[in-house]
Amino acid sequence: MSVVQSDWVELTRKMFVNANDLTVEAILGGQITVMYIHHLLNKNEYHQVITSFAQDSDSDTALKRLMSVWNPLQGHNEQDMLDKIAEHIVNGDIVGVYNNQVGMISSGAASFRAIQTSAKENVITGPHDAFVESAEINASLIRRRIRTPRLKSIKYNIGKDFPFYAYLIYIEGVAEEDVISEACIRMENLHMREVLDGNEVAKQLDDTPFAVFPQWIGTERPDSVTQYLLNGKVAILTDNSPTVVVAPVNFLDFFAVIGDNYERWHFSRFIRLLRLFAFTLTLMLSAFYVAVTTYHYQFIPPTLLETMITSRLRVPFEPMMEALLMEGVIEILREAGARLPTKIAQTIGIVGGLVIGQAIVQAGLTGNVLIVAVASSALASFIIPNYTLETSMRALRFINIILAGLMGYFGIVIFISLIITRLCHLRSLNKEYIDLSYFADFFFWSKEKRPRSVVQKSYFRRGGRS
Amino acid sequence: MNTPIKGYAFAILLFMIVRGIIFFQLPSLVTKEFGTNSWVMLYAYTALVIGHMYLIYKGSKKHKHASIWTIIHTHFPKPIATIFIVIPSLLFWVISFNLANAYARVLQFTSDPSVNIRTISIIILAVVLFTAAHGLYTITKTSVLYYLFSFWIVFFELLQFNDIEFVRYTPFFLKNGHLSFNGILDILGAFLAYETIMFMTPYLEKNTKWITYAALSAFVIGTYYTMYCFLAQGLLPVEQIQDVRFVVLRLYGATQINALEYITDLLFITFIFSAILTASVYTWSGLEGLKTLQTKDRHKENLLIAGVIMITLCYVPFNFDESKLLFSISNIILVCIIVIFTLLYFILPYKDNKASTDTANCDNTTNQAGTTSAPASSSSSSSEGVTQL
User: Fold this and answer.
1) Of A55, A294, A364, B49, whose CB has the highest number of CB atoms within 10 Å?
2) Could you give the number of structural domains in chain B?
3) Where are the transmembrane segments (chain A) (predicted)?
4) ipTM summary value
């Protein structure tokens, strides 16, 4: 292959035509031409790998020193070579051309967001670091916690038209073989047109894509991912996304957070029970109100019934419409609060919660009791630690209210039946979504799970007072 | 390889499917047939059921845990096998309809006279089809969760032991009864649904002695029924108890907990879980039967047939007495089929038929139990190992 030196530079220029962020620069007196995208460079490292060699030495010595640290690039043919050059340039490397030889050197990544606390998953006790928008940095956060060569990381290009990279991470010997092979098969077959976030990847890898419930857990916390990996799950890191998704998951996993393990056992179990209760409350409370006020007056004690009648006296709507209206208002407020800047969102919350709520009651559009029910169920939904599950429930709540409005308790029970059957059928990475044997692990703290060396005998086994 | 059903889950499934809709009128039926202190007879029924379960166990063991459908299919010429399979399958769907219809009638009685029985029956049957379509493994898992949702209700009844009058237990045993063949069968109907074991055996854990769990489940059911019957006969006079339509609901209403008085009907509504499960298992059994006759997987078509039959029945204008008659006739035919199937276990010799029939059937229905290394053809269709409806 006899291609003159200037050809590589020209061919690269042609490939990047109209890409003005490509910099082509002749250095060391024009002996070597370097090409890079300056937005992707770390400026400090650029100095270290390029300009520092030229300092305090003549150009020939500098050239020798420079070439000694560069990695040569080779291709099977011209197109292959060009592809490699382009790949390195778009990945933020510096490509240099000298006498028909092409080499590259990494200049370090361009600036990423610093490792900070996750805004989505607050921490009370435990490590405060969270993932950022770089798969390499995220992988390093995991590797620092699991220092073993058995931690495997397989890189996949999951892009259909353009390269998008994702990493499958697991611990060999801890994750089950069938889980690993299933994850590998799915990743190999995954070709997406666009990959902008880890949650997008998870949706494509779902066992049942149209299910309402999430089948992968997304988290931004490295300690969570570490714990999941140590428990035999696999994780997928997506480039440019702080969300790492984990599978196979159990439904109860969505009600447990890593922080539970850092608390005393009694509190962590209590809080898990509370989350399950909140889950039920979120789904059921408004529907229950609708069923009771529409069909089942006999279920309400007389004093409470009197209060409810008084509160609904001026309301012109059916309980179902009344509940749908209030739930709709709550959803609008919630969505507005999520999209607006924090300070405005706080104001919206106060205005929505206090002013609109009070005004709605005074205007006679809803009753006080419903406001209590809707607000309680909205509050309960915030306790659920997983945002994806929370959004699923918010949608389901409307269906439940409609069923309760049409059929009363019978509608609610039908709703429960359908949900339970579906949940029992779901699978995550071919593993059961509802695993009955997991219930005990979820609710009870096992002393046996602590390392043997620190498990002490009980007071009685020690033979009385120590 | 399908995930087998564990022993404890199997026991709970049996408990949930046997505890059906007849339970609400059982004390009245028993008192009418056997008279004073007739609660004791429920243990006799329990013993009968356990004895029959043991026969099924022995028979199924002889045929290496093959389901009765498979046994019939491999031993008889196709036309005869078709008759032996299609007729019971149709009967099972009629029974599913009966259960939905009976539940709708009780709902009308307890909640609101304006309840449309047809609409409620159709809704229940739709849920039943949905559940049955997911296969036995999902049904079993669902039954465990339903059980957790509803088992606590029994503890409320224990509080009523203060209210019973012991003088009502003093007459002799089994006096003033009006014994009839239909009545005896009606009481037996409260214990039925356990016979679906004959279709479940290929899906149970092979190294588990399922008879132990089945017998335990039957014993718990027997005790459960006996407790309610004992309470009812202590709370109400014998003459009155025969005329109360749903005496168990009356028991809930008479509870000492004030709050419970208000939610009596709500407690009844939780029994829909049992009704759905029982009907689902019957529907599933019928679907399994049809599948045995088919060489290709026609799961959706079979579901459609079952759905059409059951929903057509909803449009037949049965009044209360006609529904009751249909229930009784179905029960009689069911008992006959149970006897015939049990005899077939012992009459027919063992034939190795695994490759041709049984395995294919297992794969069709409970595929949701999942093969772990099923190759995924595409990223979003990686659930190939999972049952698709």
Assistant:
1) B49
2) 1
3) 273-292, 368-387, 399-421
4) 0.84
